[in-house]
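INTERNAL AUDIT FORM
Audit reference: QA-55
Scope: verify that the stored structure record matches its stored sequence.
Auditor: D.O.
Record contents follow.
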Amino acid sequence: MQQRVEIVNKAFFEQLNDAVFLIKCSEDIPYGEGAFSRQAIITSILCLESAANCFMYAIPCTKAMKSALDKLSLVDKYEYLYMSIIESKSINRGSPYFQKLSELVKIRNKYVHSKPSSEILPPNEISKPVLDDEKSQYLKLPTDPQSWQIKDAKNVVKYVCDFIDHFLIDLCEFPPSYSTNFLITTLYSGDESFWLIDENKKDTIKYLRESIGAKVRFFEAN
């Protein structure tokens, strides 16, 4: 009898690879810093959503319930996931990790769903002056996406990795191998399972650790 083979595709590491690739492009391609930095930041935020959806996939529940959970906000998803693992405890939304998460969601929504706006410039001015002190409260991102630079992209990617690491390892108290299993594409063959980890993913994790200083205890190669 032929064994059943199944691949469960999870987008988290692919999106994380993309974010790192975009940062490297912003470093290497002349005049591309702003464009690549903006896309790296948006892709990093997608990683947070992808990770939450990976966790949701692992929760046994009905199709109707999964549909309802999909409609939760990103912060609500993480709180629900935490409470489903650590019973009778709610998340500390006032912690720096979750303050930054809420801020990133607002930044993403404002950028992705941008609307035309107008402002009155001083006499004889034909462009908006750049004010260095116009930054978000927690991540210190310039409020104008046109001002995002490599350092901002690296800051956001580091935070995203640190958040996932903190959520899985510190809050949920999962061992690294269990955490990796949540996030990485897996092949199932009979009673065996294999993580699909290529050299590109390993290079990405190495870059995150050594060049950005991100916490990535959630990644373990088998």
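Auditor finding: record pair retrieved intact. Strands lie at 5-8, 186-189, 192-195.
Action required: none
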